[in-house]
């Protein structure tokens, strides 16, 4: 009875205008129909999964507030600077890429990074005393059972197209017959083990005989890689990827701890389903 009255109080505390668009109330915080539809569209999720994501977000926000976790503007900028550096970009290039690819301006980027760092601090606080390092035997067993995950091309034969004008380079990637004297080309074989993990991942995701998306080249211009050939697959040796496997196992353990924690939190939280999108 008490929970019912409390639930009703939460709902009634919302204005009449707001209730018209509210779908779920989590600890006095509203999730609107618009929020759910936006999450469905941006994450390509069905209604139930999108709702679960948003409920988890509200529970995390409440935990962050209760634990008084904060992130400074300096921490936000340091993270942005480090991310830009890993991708061979300046901070301005990073902002421009976020705007062109996702429609996010610099303030949007800072807010997303802040929320990411807040979540990371929360996750660390939750898992701090609950994670143990895997043994050598655990790491070897994981490697033997998942060898296929650690097979990658030995090298990529590419043609690198570069230009200062992004729009001209985009025309080239959309129409390979397009010619512009401003575009410079350079054929290179890029060994998988000698390029950055980010570039390796980008090239690995790009089908043969196609262009990668246009990205900043770190010198004020832009570049795109045309994949001419993907050289034969190579199995990574255990010692070379031992730390990577260790990180994967720890990440899996961490996700399980967090999943269990938030499942318990959700079961004990005041969550009221008012109505869902049609």
Describe this structure in words.
- The protein has eleven helices and nine strands.
- The N terminus is likely disordered.
- With 278 residues, it is of the alpha+beta class.
- The two termini are 30 Å apart.
- It has three domains: 78 residues, Porin chaperone SurA, peptide-binding domain (Triger factor/SurA peptide-binding fold), CATH 1.10.4030.10; 56 residues, no CATH class; 77 residues, Chitinase A, domain 3.
Q: Structural class, please?
A: alpha+beta
Q: Which stretches of 5+ consecutive residues score pLDDT under 50?
A: 1-20
- Sheet with the most strands: spatial strand order: 5-4-7-6
Share in helix: 55-70%
Anisotropy-based shape: globular
CATH homologous superfamily caption of the largest domain: Porin chaperone SurA, peptide-binding domain
Number of helices: 11
- Give the overall pLDDT as a whole number: 87
- Portion in beta strands: 15-25%
Question: Would you give the CATH topology of the largest domain?
Answer: Triger factor/SurA peptide-binding fold
Q: Please summarize the sheet with the most strands.
A: 4 strands, antiparallel
Distance between the termini: 30 Å
Q: Write down how many β-strands occur, each being a DSSP E stretch of 2 or more residues.
A: 9
CATH class of the largest domain: Mainly Alpha
Structural domains: how many: 3
Order of helices and strands: HHEEHHHHHHEEHEHEEEHE
Tell me the radius of gyration: 24 Å
CATH architectural designation of the largest domain: Orthogonal Bundle
